[in-house]
Amino acid sequence: MSGVFSPTRAKIKERTLRTDKWWLQPLLTFGVLFSFIIYATFRAFENDNYFTEPLISPFYSPCLSEACVPGSTLFGWTPVSAQIFNFALSPALIILIFPLGFRMTCYYYRKAYYRAFWLSPPACAVAEPHETYSGETKAPLILQNAHRWFFYAGLVFNVFLTYDAIISFKSEDGQWGHMSVGSLVLLISSSLLWFYSLSCHTCRHTVGGRLKHFSKHPIRYKLWTWVSILNHKHQQFAWYSLAAVAFADIYVRQVASGAWTNFYFF
Amino acid sequence: MARKLNLRIWRGDSTSGALQDVQVDVNEGEVVLDVIHRVQATQMGDLAVRWNCKAGKCGSCSMEINGKPRLACMTQVAAYPEGETITVTPLRTFPVIKDLVTDVSFNYKKAMEIPAYAPPADLAPGEARMQQVDVERSQEFRKCIECFLCQNVCHVIRDHEENKKSFAGPRFFIRIAELDMHPLDILKNRKKTAQEEHGLGMCNITKCCTEVCPEHIRITDNAIIPMKERVVDVKYDPARWLGSKIRRREGI
Q1: What's the whole-number average pLDDT of chain A?
Q2: Distance in angstroms (rounded) separating the CA atoms of residues B32 and B99
Q3: What does R_g of chain B's alpha carbons equal in angstroms?
Q4: One domain for residues B77 and B116
Q5: Are A164 and A157 in contact (CB under 8 A)?
Q6: Does B30 share its domain with B138?
Q7: Which residues of chain B does A145 touch, with a Cβ-Cβ cutoff of 8 Å?
Q8: Which residues of B touch A115 (CB under 8 A)?
Q9: How far apart are CA A184 and CA A203, in angstroms?
Q10: Could you read off the pLDDT of B51-100 as tens digits, one per residue?
């Protein structure tokens, strides 16, 4: 017997005596994240309906494969083969590893999925079901320490997605100065991704958190204070940006498939 | 106006124990510790409870109230719906001594394992000078009242007794962070020892320590995660490691 049932501890048979709905938050987290994983997996393999002038889904951008539909590539650059070992390779599979890696190693999402998926613990002061625990000291969880590399990659992707949002202010025949619902969707999605990235704990550390002497680095200290303000809302940005990216993909898919019409304001 | 409160108190010692139901008067504005004292005065004269300041500053009356780690002196009875039974137990991470009193000496042993503040050898007493911006970050950690609620709620040791030997716990991660961020502390290996000796890598950021802290110290965001990032700097980031070797920028 281990944990709260260890011999020297108070003899209480319940795993928790909490009377509130402690199970609700992990259940909701599980539901939302699991739904997103299922949807993202489906979309990553669908390899269709990800581009329609001037919109491209964030799941497929930048489109770097020879298999990308005409017009969806970044300046026509397609360095990746359309198939690997005779298997057709969806362009999304090449790039999703980076945003996925960024979110999987994110300090907020770690809390969320350790609680909701691994029940380690399911909630505070609720005994977890595992017999042993080594945390992030061994493989594979020691790879959580690679978060900063995914953060750097995420910044590059944000640049691409911002570029996508900017060119969405074109008409379907390539004329600048137009704005559609799709423009707004991509703009909101890419903006929230910037907020999510810039509020990241690794960003906070990089800009100034690693310093011992703030007073000797006033600019980095100022940057650190700004990122710290954003960092307070990192959890919210994590969810908002996830929802925005998913909706942006849904929107582009629906427009590209002809189910919805991309309404132009002007 | 007094009303009746149904209270369940865990009574026992390390060999046996059980929850016992009592009914007790409670007055408007009272906290759980007031009610426990009334039970002690009127119904259970030998009820053991540790307390001191009754102002949320000594950290003595840590216990679990309806399963949540809390300070009894800062928990209003009115926060619970009228008619609800309030269950009070000792901290469930530490060995119980009697009733609501636990043996928290684990924490004092861990405190002794943290290397003390190490100023430069040539810094004479009274000559230390620091800018306010450098002081502020670690001042947050100095608010700690050592109630050990964070240690109690941390599942690394709460759910795994065997981890106690290798895991210092959130209270001592804020101590390590405070020292590592201190501009005048010159001990170089705090980051590595935090990971290798004090078990920082076992923390999986579930933030329960932050949720229960009565001083609202942002333990995870401001101490544990920054320390994890500092550990990455010295242990898991080859670019940073190489940069530190070339430019010798320790302690910037």
Answers
A1: 94
A2: 15
A3: 21
A4: no
A5: no
A6: no
A7: 228, 231-232, 235-236
A8: 206
A9: 27
A10: 999 999 999 999 999 999 999 999 999 999 999 999 999 999 999 999 99
Residues B86 and B209 in one domain: no
- Write out the residue range of the structural domain in which residue A204 sits: 21-256
To the nearest whole Å, the CA of B174 is away from the closest chain A CA by 15
- Written in H, E and C, the secondary structure of B72-112 is HHHCEHHHCCCCCCEEEECCCCCCEEECCEECCHHHHHHHH
Q: Which of B43, B77, B102 is the last residue of a domain?
A: B102
C-alpha span between A73 and A56 (Å, rounded): 9
ipTM: 0.94
Question: Is residue B252 in a domain?
Answer: no
Q: Total domain count for chain B?
A: 2
Q: Which residue has the tokens 């426990």?
A: B36
**Please, are residues B117 and B185 in contact by the beta-carbon 8 Å criterion?**
yes
Could you tell me if B202 and A135 are in contact, meaning their C-beta atoms sit under 8 angstroms apart?
yes
Q: Which domain holds residue B232?
A: 105-247
Rounded to whole angstroms, the Cα distance separating A61 from B48 reads 64
Same domain, B51 and B176: no
Residue window 6-35, chain A: list those with CB within 8 Å of chain B.
6-12, 16-20
Residues B125 and B14 in one domain: no
- For residues B243 and B133, membership in a common domain is answered with yes
Summarize pLDDT for B97-156 with one digit per residue, the tens: 999 999 999 999 999 999 999 999 999 989 999 999 999 998 999 999 999 999 999 999
Tell me, yes or no, whether A12 lies in a domain: no
Same domain, B68 and B127: no
Q: A24-46 and A107-116 are packed helices; what angle lies between their axes, rounded to 10 degrees? A: 110
